[in-house]
Specification:
Blueprint: E1 4-10, E2 15-16, E3 21-31, E4 37-45, E5 54-61, E6 67-74, E7 84-85, E8 90-92, E9 99-107, E10 116-117, H1 129-141, E11 154-156, E12 159-161, E13 167-168, H2 181-187, H3 190-208, H4 214-229, H5 235-265, H6 269-291, E14 297-302, E15 319-323
Antiparallel strand pairs: 1-3, 2-10, 3-4, 4-7, 4-8, 5-6, 5-9, 11-12, 12-13, 14-15
């Protein structure tokens, strides 16, 4: 069986402005047994409509001024919007590649595209930890990928570039990370995110007041105290309500403890040992979660390399980050 070695790759290619197709990568691999080289390409449909026909040319530059052009004609591409296509590799004559350029010549009936442009570098967001946490929560709620959409988006004439770097034409959501275009302006506004965070914290804390769990009631009280300092709604009155519910909950807890005393006395030793073991193992993380605020981030577990989905990826061995949305 032949083995292949990548001898050239470019995944930072220019884009013909307003072209429905963007070339994502050009790669040349050499058969280490025969020396034959093959040209591989990867492209994406940046629109929301299916593309039937795609034609493009790859111009390769070799050593000593040698060049080679390779044409691709995909008559039945049938590439859905937002989907990636990897056309069949083509054998080439050049064995040393110094550079490559992709030119799309036809997409369905369209043959005229804008000039090739370099995609501008994205601007980082200036958000604090609380604002960033709220942004992550909202991206997750729209089923987007926060780990990709980390920068500010940019609007252009007829197209927009997402915070993940992907270009999009007439799309409501990004083909790459799933972020919704209409919400990105708000998700990059510190003032909007702070107001949204306070509203989420308030609503979550109101729900906690319905619990008889003292820890939850105490967390609600702490949250309302924070919001009261910011003058948010009726948070000051909610602090008093939380204190009253905590006092009531303590009384009920004492009554329940008296009723449970007899049952507790005959509990199995094995069950007690198991509970103590679990408590010891999770004590550190329990403390971390207890001290975290709603909307904050804690780390629990890692992306195991023993799982095929993570093995060999950039996240293998890294901690899994969780957003605190409720505590019980």
């Amino acid at each position: 069986m032949s083995k292949y070695k990548v001898i050239y790759r470019d995944d930072n290619l220019s884009w013909q402005e307003l072209c429905p197709v963007r070339m994502l990568a050009i790669q040349v691999a050499r058969d280490t047994e025969t020396g034959t080289c093959f040209l591989q390409t990867k492209l994406v449909n940046v629109t929301s409509q299916t593309i039937s026909r795609i034609e493009f040319t790859i111009d390769l530059a070799g050593e000593d001024g040698k060049t080679e052009s390779v044409d691709f004609t995909l008559l039945d591409a049938d590439l859905p919007g937002g989907e990636i296509l990897r056309p069949q590799a083509k054998k080439i004559e050049l064995s040393v590649i110094a550079g490559a350029k992709a030119t799309v010549t036809r997409v369905d009936n369209q043959c005229d595209f804008g000039a090739a442009i370099e995609i501008d570098s994205l601007k980082p967001l200036a958000l604090n930890e609380d604002e960033e946490s709220e942004r992550i929560v909202q991206l997750l709620e729209m089923e987007a990928q926060p780990d990709k959409c980390t920068n500010a988006h940019a609007d252009h004439d007829g197209w927009w570039q997402c915070g993940c770097g992907a270009v999009n034409i007439v799309r409501r959501d990004c083909w790459d990370c799933g972020a919704q275009h209409g919400k990105l302006v708000d998700l990059e506004s510190a003032s909007y995110l702070e107001e949204s965070r306070k509203d989420r914290l308030y609503r979550t804390s109101v729900e906690m007041l319905e619990s008889y769990n003292v820890s939850l009631l105490q967390q609600a009280k702490d949250n309302f105290e924070e919001l009261a300092k910011l003058g948010y709604k009726d948070s000051a009155e909610r602090v008093i309500e939380a204190e009253q519910r905590i006092a009531t909950s303590h009384k009920k807890k004492k009554q329940l403890l008296k009723r449970a005393a007899i049952v507790g006395a005959i509990a199995a030793v094995g069950l007690i040992a198991f509970s103590l073991f679990g408590f010891t193992q999770t004590k550190a993380k329990q403390a971390e979660i207890r001290d975290a605020r709603i909307g904050g981030i804690v780390e629990l577990g890692t992306y195991s390399g023993e799982l095929p989905a993570y093995k060999g990826t950039s996240v293998e061995g890294k901690p899994i980050k969780w957003i605190v949305v409720h505590k019980d």
